[in-house]
Specification:
Distance between the termini: 26 Å
Largest sheet: none
Number of strands: 0
Order of helices and strands: HHHHHHHHHHHH
Helix content: over 70%
Number of helices: 12
Radius of gyration: 22 Å
Shape: elongated
Length: about 280
């Protein structure tokens, strides 16, 4: 049976399994976060100093932390924050970067040159340093994180989308559509940009993982999501001080970050081998 255009035929079963496994992991995590009030009766910020560092029990399936808060409730509610913020900043970075990359690959003149110089300037600084610099201006908190990451994370999408469009311009696709009498805007939006979106989609899965870890790292440093809002990085920072009395809060939060990253990585790896646009193949 001939493989459908745009898809790879070798190892299709294994790649499908990776996509399904990654999607299933992420869906389970999202469902657990959304259904957190149903899955556990405890409030994630409810302090109970009479039940500090309790071990696993029927009442507290993952025990309690140093303030007597239910660990399972905090992990599940923290997933709402971390997954939503990671997805939001990834989408924002992808939309901004892909749009600028499409313009830089399609247009000629001063605008692409200015954007590419800006890309070089932003890329010259370590990503985490730039994020912390923006947070230093905006102040710690969720709003600063939502602003900082897209402002610094768009450059990879811009470079990738621009490269894909330049490759498509060289293989005769654009000329063929111009011969048919199509306008430049229609060619870009309907025939060029869709081919360039495949590699950007694949990259967004690894970017999601990186953003998830970055959000946890920034909160771990105290510059991200602020207490008492549950957040995985903040839970790790708190839990490391009480390892001698209870290790479950730290391990549970760390495991949540690892599992979410694993799901996104499996999904991206499977998509990378399943999606085969001409531009992706040429760029590889």
């Amino acid at each position: 049976m001939t493989a459908a255009p745009g898809f790879a035929s070798p190892g299709v079963g294994r790649r499908d399994a990776e996509v399904l496994a990654g999607a299933a992991i992420l869906l389970v995590l999202v469902a657990a976060a959304v259904l957190a009030p149903v899955l556990t009766p405890w409030e994630p910020t409810a302090v109970d100093l009479l039940h500090q560092h309790e071990s696993v029990s029927a009442a507290h399936l993952l025990g309690t932390d140093h303030l007597g808060r239910d660990v399972l409730a905090r992990v599940l509610h923290a997933g709402r924050t971390d997954l939503a913020v990671a997805a939001g900043v990834t989408v924002a970075s992808a939309v901004l970067g892909t749009g600028l990359g499409a313009l830089c690959g399609w247009l000629r003149g001063p605008l692409p040159a200015v954007v590419l110089r800006l890309v070089d300037v932003v890329a010259a600084f370590p990503f985490l340093v730039l994020v912390l610099a923006v947070l230093a201006v905006t102040g710690p908190g969720l709003g600063g994180v939502l602003l900082a990451i897209p402002l610094t994370g768009w450059i990879s999408y811009t470079r990738l989308c621009r490269t894909e469009i330049l490759v498509l311009r060289e293989d005769g696709l654009v000329d063929a559509h111009r011969v048919l009498g199509l306008g430049g805007g229609r060619i870009l939006l309907r025939h060029v940009l869709p081919h360039a979106l495949g590699p950007c989609l694949v990259y967004s899965t690894s970017d999601f993982t990186g953003n998830l870890v970055l959000i946890a790292a920034v909160s771990y440093l105290g510059a991200g999501v602020q207490p008492p809002t549950p957040e995985w990085g903040a839970m790790i920072a708190e839990g490391q001080h009480y390892l001698d009395r209870g290790w479950l809060p730290l391990v549970a939060a760390t495991a949540a970050v690892v599992v979410a990253g694993l799901g996104a990585s499996l999904l991206g790896d499977g998509l990378a081998h399943r999606l085969r646009t001409p531009a992706a193949g040429a760029a590889a």
